[in-house]
Amino acid sequence: MQPSAAGFRPEIHGLRGVAILLVVAYHLWTAGRVSGGVDVFLFISAFLMTASFVRKGTAFRLLDFLVQRFRRLVPLAAIVVAATTAVGWVVLPPTRYEGLLNHARASLIYRENWRLIADEANYMVADPQRLNPFQHFWSLSLQGQLFVLLPLVFVAAAALERHRGIPIRRTLAVVLGLATVASFAWAVHRVEVDPAAAYFETWARAWEFTAAGLVALLPTLRMPAALARALSWAGVALLLATGLLWGRGAFPAWAALPPLAAAALVILSGPRSDDAGHAAWWLSRRPVTFVANRAYSLYLWHWPVYVFTVVLTSNGDHRTGPVDSLTILALSFVLADLSTRLVERRFHRLDLLRSKRYAATAIVAFTLMATSVLGGVAALVEADDRATAALAPEQRPGARALTPGPDAAVTPAPALPTAPSPTPGRGIAPGDRAIALDWPQDLPPCEEGVPGHPARPDLGWCGVLEPEGTPTRVVAVVGDSHAFQWLTTLIPLAEERGWRLAAYGRAACRVGSPNPDPGCTEYTDEAIAWLLETRPDQVISTGSSTRADGAEHDDWGWAEAIAPVAHAGIAVVNVRDNPRWAFDMPECIQRYGTDDPRCSARRADKLGEAWPTGGLADLPNQYYLDFSDWFCPPTKVSICPGVIGNTYVYMDSNHLSRAYLESMGDVFAQAWDEAMG
């Protein structure tokens, strides 16, 4: 039997400490890199769980295991969820309240990873400017789900040995082996198609658990001391190098192999904590085990401390300076130490918790405590929305507050009264909290087998609006969220005029754009093929691209990609991109007020003097819609504000709000008719 199955191995515990330090360090001092520490966490948990089951054999009791496991996890997790929710209500701007509550609930019931996937899939939610203080709960949720699923395999294996005489090890080897191959293959596929979702997905991560179970089934490996030392240090070195090799987008497929191999090498090299030449000796030293003893608490606390520090000290920049980072680290350690002493150890030592009844009661009690805090914050949030809800339509005209000026330009209408409020930003439609959820209107999803359905719907999102009778024309929308946001103005027009409106898009993937995501390249090919096959009357997408630094350009391959469609006689309607910001615009307004210069910019700093159409000018069947004057009204000192007509123009750092787009309905219809003749 693997020696780890016989008892406590301090070097494995120490490896957990190294893993958590890597996780925290990478969160504080790197961007877009993955340390591999979470993967090691998952691997160690599954290894120890499988080893424990093999040791117990047919005596394994599922209920006992679940109660024992979750009594260690739930109390502190519930405290952190409650504390983070309460502090978030005080520290975060109202735009984040709804997300705060949604992610708190998901974290409490071990579904945060799936909540994050849902947010990633929604092209309007996945805004990198909005740090989520519960995001780190994704790995705990994944762990909790597999803590329920994997023991079911143990129960089945024990039953087969009792009733059929099939050895437990044989059953586990077959089941875990097949599961590892299937899950890894799925992970490779998902990373290619949708890497953002794959990173959090249970089925794409399951192989890390099952592979650890296979390692736990290996017999004792006896090897020369020199070889054991070499393997142990190779494992440590491989773990430390993981973050230098790949970014987040490559996990959890091939990129997850190095950290898992690192953990396996340390484990298989044996428990040689008496050999100073072996990594196990160093991993068993007190400084390392001190961190390991607080690993769970440190993991829980460090991320919300980091998020709240960023919110309080920066404006759209997630980076923290050396002093702030060290302060975050120190405060996280203090909270972790107190939590370990006052919560984890006390609940672990209380004899009454050895009873399943009392343990279950404790789990429920802490969950209810956290739920009550969430309910209280939700009630306060609802009360904050009432002032804005009282706004009359004429008090929130949005783009209708701009009146036509000379040469089709626009000029601001007189200032409008807002709902009385002592807080900056209050009284602006659709509301301080609602603006974060003010996503542009969607189409009903496509149904497979219906004519015009994309061949590869898995590469993006597909929607279609069918008229009651024969469509008067067919309009298609392709591209990313900046193209899809115009569905809010297109849908009423399509319903009024009997159009068939179809859309096929992919988040963060402009058609023809150079993109490291291989799925984006595939999407571009499929989108063009779809347009050539369905042959709509018009296809609409963004015809330029802006950046937060103000540079507007056309050099991302749209003209080259759409050329076959234009030459096929299909009208291509290009919409000029709207300004983007280096910060969350509604949050800026809520923090500083509508008139603060930090929440606006000169038009010349956000948009080019003229639309950079580039290669589009050489193509036939090109049409242009430019709404820049409705985002940056041309005045003597032309600026791009965050609020027009008591309405938020943007819902985040770069997407237009649904409320403002709805106010542009007549403007869009008029521009469409003028462009299309």
Rg measurement, Å: 28 Å
Low-confidence stretches: 1-6, 405-409, 411-425
If helices are DSSP runs of H or I spanning 4 or more residues, what is the number of helices? Answer: 26
The SS-based structural class is alpha/beta
Record the strand order, biggest sheet.
3-5-4-6-9-11
Q: Distance between termini?
A: 80 Å
Overall strand count: 14
Shape: globular
- How many structural domains does the protein architecture include? 2
Beta fraction: 5-15%
Helix share, percent: 40-55%
Can you tell me about this structure?
This protein is α/β, with parallel strands linked by helices. It has two domains: 3-379, no CATH class; 440-579 and 607-625 and 650-676, Rossmann fold (3-Layer(aba) Sandwich), CATH 3.40.50.2300. Helix content is 55%, strand content 7%. The protein contains 26 helices and 14 strands. It has helices at 10-29, 37-56, 62-91, 97-108, 112-121, 137-164, 168-193, 195-200, 202-217, 225-245, 257-268, 279-283, 286-293, 295-313, 322-349, 356-384, 386-389, 481-484, 487-497, 518-534, 558-567, 585-592, 603-606, 628-631, 658-663, 665-676; strands at residues 402-404, 410-412, 461-465, 474-479, 500-505, 538-542, 545-546, 552-553, 571-575, 601-602, 622-625, 639-640, 643-644, 647-648. Strands 3-5-4-6-9-11 form a six-stranded mixed beta sheet, with helices on both faces. A two-stranded antiparallel sheet has the order 1-2. Strands 7-8 form a two-stranded antiparallel ribbon. The termini are far apart. The model is unreliable at 1-6, 405-409 and 411-425 (pLDDT under 50).
Features:
six-stranded mixed sheet, 55% helix, Rossmann fold, alpha/beta, single chain, 677 residues, two-stranded antiparallel sheet, 2 domains, 14 strands
